[in-house]
Amino acid sequence: MKSEIPSHRGAPQQFWIDHLVEKHECFHCEMRSEEIQIHDETVELLVPSWAVRFEVVEGQKSSNKLFLILRDLETQGWDDPLGIVAIAVQELDQVSRYRVILWHATYPYIWKHLDPRRSTSKNTDAE
């Protein structure tokens, strides 16, 4: 459902959201290690063993957590790659080691809103 909110230029502005509804899959899993760069720091990220290959688009550290926006490098069939939102927590005994506790794929249309320069999507429903 699209919502129209007046913009500062007088024309209605439509906001887009990828609503991650209540379907959850929670379980224990095997992890694998990946090295990633967050700003100028290399950290070890433990991700589910079944996770797709990815690149870090943006990452922010906050106390003992990492908040990540990732780009899926494997899934095919869309104009743009899927996005991934991930949250990781710092391992208690390892300063530069984080373990993913949330991994959620997003629709590829998110790139039109997060990084329009890199989007190739022609889907007008995502505007």
Topology at a glance:
Elements: E1 3-6, E2 12-15, E3 31-38, E4 41-48, E5 54-62, E6 65-72, E7 83-90, E8 97-106, H1 111-114
Parallel strand pairs: 4-8
Antiparallel strand pairs: 1-2, 3-4, 5-6, 6-7, 7-8
Describe the structure.
The chain has 127 residues and is mostly beta strands. The protein has one helix spanning 111-114, and strands at residues 3-6, 12-15, 31-38, 41-48, 54-62, 65-72, 83-90, 97-106. Helix content is 3%, strand content 46%. It has a six-stranded mixed β-sheet with strand order 3-4-8-7-6-5, with no helix packed on it. It is globular, with a radius of gyration of 17 Å. The model is unreliable at 1-8 (pLDDT under 50).
Explain briefly what this protein structure is.
This protein has 127 residues and is mainly beta. It has one helix and eight strands, in the order ββββββββα.
N-to-C SSE string, H for helix and E for strand:
EEEEEEEEH
Q: Which overall shape is indicated by the principal axes computed on the Cα atoms?
A: globular
Helix/strand class: mainly beta
- As a percent range, the share of strand residues is over 45%
Supply Rg: 17 Å
Global mean pLDDT:
82
SS element count, helices: 1
- As residue ranges, the low-confidence spans are 1-8
Described by its quaternary structure, the protein is: single chain
Share in helix? under 10%
- First-last Cα distance: 12 Å
For the secondary structure, the number of strands is: 8
* Biggest sheet record: 6 strands, mixed
**Strands in their spatial order, largest beta sheet:** 3-4-8-7-6-5
